[in-house]
Specification:
- The chain is mainly alpha-helical.
- The chain has a domain of 50 residues.
- It is 66% helix and 0% strand.
- The termini are far apart.
- This is Small integral membrane protein 4.
- Keywords: Membrane, Transmembrane, Transmembrane helix.
- InterPro entries: UQCC5 (IPR028183).
């Protein structure tokens, strides 16, 4: 783990402090989020992506609710 002084020095190297303040980090997090979303959509582990598993599990839950006789809600 980096010492606190090194972290502060690294954060000061990010441009835009006077104009954007703390929001100067926003583009980095936007790119990180977009990259994670792309990985969840495109990258396959075995034969399935994250969203394949999500859809399957949601379908299984809906089917189980119908079997239990509970009213359907989202």
């Amino acid at each position: 783990m980096l010492p606190r002084a090194q972290v502060r020095r690294l954060l000061r190297c990010v441009p835009g402090k006077e104009r954007l303040g703390i929001y100067r980090f926003l583009p980095f997090f936007f790119v990180l989020g977009a990259t994670m979303e792309w990985i969840m959509i495109k990258m396959r582990v075995g034969q399935e992506t994250f969203y394949d598993v999500y859809r399957r599990k949601a379908s299984e839950r809906q089917y189980q609710r119908r079997l239990d006789g509970a009213p359907e809600s989202k």
